[in-house]
Design goal:
Largest interface: A-B, 57 and 57 residues
Shape of chain A: globular
Order of helices and strands of chain A: HEHEHHEHEHEHEHEHEHH
CATH topology of chain A: TIM Barrel
Number of helices of chain A: 11
Strand order of the largest sheet of chain A: 1-2-3-4-5-6-7-8
Strand content of chain A: 15-25%
CATH superfamily of chain A: Aldolase class I
Oligomer: homodimer
Structural class of chain A: alpha/beta
CATH architecture of chain A: Alpha-Beta Barrel
């Protein structure tokens, strides 16, 4: 999916919601656990219930990998089930030397039909470049993440005066462009979001950390938007585990709808 | 495998060689391509030919992931085939927030029987900590990698005067200890290896970049050893693709033997 198509979806649905498919067999409601493929059956319900309210789905690959081969099967079925007009992000946080990076790109862009992959920047240009070579595919580089550990290294000050995450966001832009590159910017740093928007005005941000991790959606909409919204705001646990019994679908829809309606006021 | 057992293997075999199983279907000799599981059959030959000369195997997970479910099956079979007294490293370069990190740890330590996983440090303590909670298992954190891109961020100078990779190596030591934590230090920075050894005297280093990437083995042995050697020196392409026809096993053994014999002079 290209930039214009993604923006069209955002305008049509009045939503920049990304639903995180962090599907954990220990946490899904009991009515799914007897299914032949509980993870896929659960995801199917999530997709059926939320697909008119969101523009992206983001499976975190760890949850599938930890189930072994059965998990990869659930993931492939899930990706095939997501409608074509919804953006598909592999939250994989990969990153390796060039010949290996190519392999990871092949996994997510060719083996599975993802639109985007998250990548960690620590290994530098040759770890990011292989993901930039595919038409209408995207790399989403970790800029400033939403977790507590983002203070350990990302927010160290360099001798140039910049923070490390600022340097990452500025440098990585030289390797790609707003049509093939996005950044992860956590919602738990609303004060910094405005400045980061100035550093990367035309780029999409993938914004995790709203909800369970404490980020405030309204503040994010106000501080992070550019002329074309330029954000995919992710919520995982707050949506997919909103209910845990017979009310599962109803509560999940209400949770997603609440976010979409708040977003609509800004789109 | 614990630290003492690993050191015992190094002394017994007079080797600190780690063979990288970066097995690429495009590169393996033609006699394997007709097998039902070419990747596993090739790996089996590598293991049979080199297991008395090395103390560790390191499959780079990207190569298996890119083959889809069949690739994960080849990986599981490979891990099961490696003898118990050889250290098994999942070169996965993972790293995610705490609840996700736990999933990745589960994948490699429980789902598959790896001894160690490589992890990228960019997301900080909560991305590394979940891997430290398993008995006799190891996390290997990227310190200074062997690739060109290591200059982009790892070698940036902080306002404290340290390079970023120095800060990473010092800070991460506070989260673990020499019995559950190692660092990746590329062989392509032999001048820096001596200094890095002083920063982390008792820690094992996983050293990629000898051979195909240009690092010099003798220099690494001289600059990187501590009292218990403290290094696993990896070679992938130079060993596993040393021959490409009927001479495959012979050339592979010669390549591994050459490295082991050079190492033996220092052990």
């Amino acid at each position: 999916m290209n930039r214009q198509e993604l923006y069209n979806q955002i305008r049509t649905k009045k939503s920049c919601l990304c639903v995180g498919l962090d599907t954990d067999i220990q946490k899904i409601p009991s009515q799914f656990t007897q299914a032949q493929d509980p993870i896929f059956e659960f995801n199917k319900t999530v997709i059926d219930t939320t697909k008119d309210l969101c523009v992206a789905y983001k499976p975190n690959i760890a949850f599938y990998e930890s189930m072994g081969i059965a998990g990869w099967q659930s993931l492939e079925k899930t990706i095939d089930y997501i409608p074509d007009n919804i953006f598909k992000i592999a939250d994989a946080k990969r990153g390796d030397i060039q010949n290996t990076g190519k392999m990871y790109a092949k996994t997510f862009f060719e083996q599975m039909n993802f639109d985007a992959v998250t990548v960690a920047p620590y290994m530098g240009e040759d770890s990011v470049a292989p993901f930039l070579e595919f038409d209408d595919k995207w790399v989403i580089v970790l800029g400033l993440t939403s977790n507590v550990g983002s203070h350990d290294f990302q927010q160290l000050r360099l001798d140039s005066g910049e923070m490390l995450y600022e340097r990452v966001i500025k440098t990585v832009q030289k390797w790609g462009n707003p049509n093939n590159l996005m950044f992860v910017v956590g919602a738990t740093h609303p004060d910094l979001l405005k400045d980061i928007r100035k550093m990367a005005e035309d780029y999409f941000f993938l914004i995790p950390g709203v909800g369970a991790q404490g980020g405030d959606l309204k503040e994010v909409m106000e501080n992070g938007s550019n002329g074309e919204i330029g954000m995919l705001i992710n919520s995982s646990r707050n949506i997919i585990y909103a209910g845990d019994g017979a009310d599962h679908e109803e509560k999940m829809r209400l949770s997603a709808l609440g976010m979409q309606q708040l977003m609509a006021a800004y789109i």
